[in-house]
Amino acid sequence: MPKRRLVWTLVPTYWAVAAVTALAAAWAGLRVYERSLLEAARADLRARGAFFLTQLNANPAASQEFAALARDYQKATGLRVASVGADRKVAFDSQDRPQELEDILGRGELAAAARGVEHDVLRWHAALDQQVLHMALPIPDEPGAALYLAQPVPALEQGTSAMRKWFLVVGGVMLLLCVPWAARVALGLAGALAPVRQAIDRFAAGQFASRSSVPEPRELSELAESYNRMASLLQNRLSQLLQSNNEQRAVLASMAEGVLAVDSQERVISVNPASSRLLGLDPAQAQGRPLREVIRNADLVRFISRALAGQEPLEADVALHGDRERVLQARGSTLHDATGRPMGAVIVLNDVTDFRRLEDIRRDFVANVSHELKTPVTSIKGFVETLLDGAAKDAEDSERFLRIIAKQSDRLHAIIEDLLSLSKIEQSEDDEDIVLEPAALRGVLESAVHNCESAAADKRIQIELDCPADLTANINPLLLEQAVVNLIDNAIKYSEPERDVQVSTAAESDAIVIHVADHGSGISSEHLPRVFERFYRVDRARSRKLGGTGLGLAIVKHIVQAHRGRVTADSTLGVGSTFTIRLPKPPATALPA
User: Fold this and answer.
1) Residue 357 burial by CB count (10 A; 0-12/13-18/19+): exposed, middle or buried?
2) Would the CA dihedral through 325, 331, 336, 338 be positive or negative?
3) What pTM did the predictor assign?
């Protein structure tokens, strides 16, 4: 329902007040005017009564002159004159109706005159249809006797009627003049309030610096000043709240941990960006919705329900299943309001997938290193004990045992060397100490092929190299050579005799590619994702027989990563394998001399 404007509230009020005031003034004026007319009539009647009292002798009924005079007045002015004796009998009546007077002897005015007191009263005379003023005067020197006068006063009614009309006209004019005056006053008040209202509207619209001008009326100026003080206080408070909220949002947005807050009804209160990424949520759509509609992971929902029901902090690991299985470490604690009452729970989620994977890798690495080192050490120890037990006396057995010990020592040395090399590469990769510089690839690849020619010749394998002389990349020549040597060495080991190995390069739009392909036994698809792990072997028995340490491809992977590239493997059983190194393509610069 629309509200009335101030002008339509004040104008009727002012008009009503003016109308009541005009009516009250008119009524009071009429009463005063009637009283003045009545007083004039009383004075006139009293003067006439005094005149008749002077004309009246001791025996009014016997005075012919008095009777004639009274009747003449009766005819001329309508004044009724009568005298009442002390015996309460009408001695004279100018209207010659003494019986009528005797019937009214008990009226107040005659009774008062009989007691020696002048009295008068105004009454409506029905027969005359006008007001009549009745007055009784005591007759001097005759106790109990009274002179009765009755005078119609048409001037009183006529004057009152005329005065009433005049007051109505004046009052109507005043009311008509009051309407524009009241409208002007109301519009003035509304105009004085307009700046305050406009300032409040601007403040409500977000313009917190909006202030009102101070109008002239004292009350309105106090209102405007009160609003300005309130607006300043609210602006300061809002600024503090906004700053605190922005700081909180910045902290939550910069956290690597996901933060999820829910109320006691399991509705989402807030979700920070990290939590949105971990759980795949849209913060705008998730806020305010029930938890079970937003999160589809039953383990996490149960954990949050336990956090809401309990008082102590909780901690558990939650597995997320999707494109890639992840492990989240969840910590839950009760969320309290300003009064300390529980109002929900806050859940902190930390992605520990990589941490758990590194723990698994560390365990596997320790187990593999222990196993790889234990085998040659056990073999060396066994043959040494055999020699000590007397086998050293047999020259043939002694030589055979010593050769085995030497072979196992070489294997142990190779494992240690590879571990040291891998550790050094990883350390340099983490510290970014590896220096990369533009260099021609052909020279590096030729050196790698030359280092492997002896092993290839033993198996009658030819290494084919296809690399343009002008192909360059940002590399560390020694490390890249080591990586290519490891790949060629593996290709030779796992190829049948007289099966060639190809080393080729290609320049793509965004990368320099090095391929090392063989025609060996190949690798089944289930082993391909893990061939670059430490000590991972497709065929453990054959690998040990060929003298592999299980670290060659791991070294290749870390060398390529230090070059900001990646290495992949593609293989088909019975056909062969191709290992591909992709290095970032350098900007077009001239090759230094």
Assistant:
1) exposed
2) negative
3) 0.42
